[in-house]
């Protein structure tokens, strides 16, 4: 008999077997419970909901049969989920964070994303896109405090066939050079620091100044942080800048660029790194380019084109 975590699968049905003894009618819930629960959803009018609940039941029951939790472990799991719910507020979504660290957000994102290799890959939105980015002129600096190494980001928004998309809109947000978003430090950073809403020019080109972002830890002061601690996982995300690019007649893309060569690219706490999104932030020593970009020389420079899928 298979043994998992030291317990015998056949003997640990976890229910009172005697309840069905002596009766030849009704369901034996100890052996037929999975199908009984699936059948209980048979009248669900929405077929998608019916399918989801059926699959959830089967997978959840298989998980329980495989891992054979003790009552204490079951209570601990309920306590964990309860604490996760209690941590949620209008500005803090611990369940999404849990989904993130379990790789579920990234899986859902990728399964729903378009797969055309000519278009820019997507990645998770994350919890810090919670305030509207301030509209800014092309070329503006989104680093209002000068906390990090100056850099210029430029690129072009294009359709899948390479046609430029004039007037495309780029929503950009990032943590500062010390690894904090403005909303995490309301007493330190001005609102909108590290954020900008840009409209691309007549050729779909965009440019802005900022600081090179730093790796930062996802929030660890809740149950998800406790989970990472208990499993000896680090909470860091590699340095990145978030983008949502949109243009008329095209599907928007939610993505990041990651700083090539940075720490944690191979162990992102939320599994969101895709190779195509890792970009060089090239050390550039060029006075005339620095003048053109309006930055002090030398500076770092990343070029990133965003290619959108026509709707
Ligand atoms: C972020 O990149 O902002 C992020 C994404 C997922 C979880 C936490 C933070
Ligand atoms: Fe982020």
So how many helices?
7
CATH class of the largest domain: Mainly Beta
Query: Which small molecules are bound?
Result: benzoic acid, fe (iii) ion
Provide the CATH superfamily of the largest domain: Aromatic compound dioxygenase
**Poorly predicted ranges (pLDDT <50, ≥5 residues)?**
1-21
Structural class: alpha+beta
Overall mean confidence score, pLDDT:
90
Query: What is the molecular shape?
Result: elongated
What proportion of the residues is helical, as a percent range?
Answer: 25-40%
- Work out the strand percent: 15-25%
Along the chain, the helix and strand elements come as: EEHHHHHEEEEEHEEEEEEHEE
Rg, Å, rounded: 25 Å
Named CATH architecture of the largest domain: Sandwich
CATH topology of the largest domain: Protocatechuate 3,4-Dioxygenase, subunit A
The count of strands amounts to 15
Main sheet attributes: strand count, strand direction, barrel closure: 6 strands, mixed
Descriptive tags:
elongated; binds benzoic acid; Protocatechuate 3,4-Dioxygenase, subunit A; binds fe (iii) ion; alpha+beta; about 20% strand; 2 domains; 5-stranded mixed sheet; about 300 residues; single chain; disordered N terminus
List the helices and strands and how they pair.
Layout: E1 3-4, E2 7-8, H1 29-40, H2 47-67, H3 71-87, H4 94-101, H5 104-112, E3 150-159, E4 169-173, E5 195-199, E6 205-211, E7 216-217, H6 223-230, E8 236-237, E9 240-246, E10 250-251, E11 253-259, E12 278-279, E13 282-284, H7 287-293, E14 299-303, E15 306-310
Parallel strand pairs: 3-14, 3-15, 11-12
Antiparallel strand pairs: 1-2, 3-6, 4-5, 4-9, 7-8, 9-11, 10-15, 13-14
Helix pairs in contact: 1-2
Bound molecules: benzoic acid and fe (iii) ion.
């Amino acid at each position: 008999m298979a043994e998992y975590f030291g317990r015998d699968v056949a003997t640990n049905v976890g229910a009172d077997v005697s309840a069905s003894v002596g009766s030849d009618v009704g369901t034996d819930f100890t052996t037929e419970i999975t199908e009984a629960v699936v059948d209980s959803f048979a009248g669900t009018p929405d077929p998608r909901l019916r399918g989801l609940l059926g699959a959830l039941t089967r997978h959840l029951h298989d998980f329980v049969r495989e891992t054979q939790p003790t009552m204490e472990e079951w209570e601990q799991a309920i306590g964990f989920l309860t604490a996760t719910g209690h941590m949620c507020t209008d500005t803090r979504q611990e369940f999404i964070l849990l989904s993130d660290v379990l790789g579920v957000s990234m899986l859902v994102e990728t399964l729903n994303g378009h797969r055309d290799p000519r278009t820019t890959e997507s990645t998770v939105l994350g919890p810090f896109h919670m305030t509207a980015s301030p509209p800014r002129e092309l070329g503006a600096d989104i680093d209002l405090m000068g906390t990090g190494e100056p850099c210029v980001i430029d690129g072009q928004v294009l359709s899948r066939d390479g046609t430029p998309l004039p007037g495309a809109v780029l929503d950009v947000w990032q943590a500062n050079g010390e690894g904090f978003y403005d909303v995490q430090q309301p007493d330190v950073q001005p609102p909108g620091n590290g954020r900008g809403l840009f409209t691309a020019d007549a050729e779909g080109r965009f440019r802005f100044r900022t600081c090179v972002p730093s790796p930062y830890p996802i929030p660890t002061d809740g149950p998800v942080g406790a989970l990472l601690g208990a499993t000896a996982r680090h909470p860091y995300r590699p340095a990145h800048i978030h983008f949502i690019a949109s243009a008329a007649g095209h599907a928007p893309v939610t993505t990041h660029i990651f700083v090539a060569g940075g720490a944690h690219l191979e162990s992102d706490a939320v599994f969101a790194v895709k190779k195509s999104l890792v970009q060089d932030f090239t050390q550039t020593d060029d006075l005339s380019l620095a003048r053109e970009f309006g930055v002090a020389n030398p500076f770092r420079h990343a070029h990133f084109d965003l290619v959108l899928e026509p709707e």
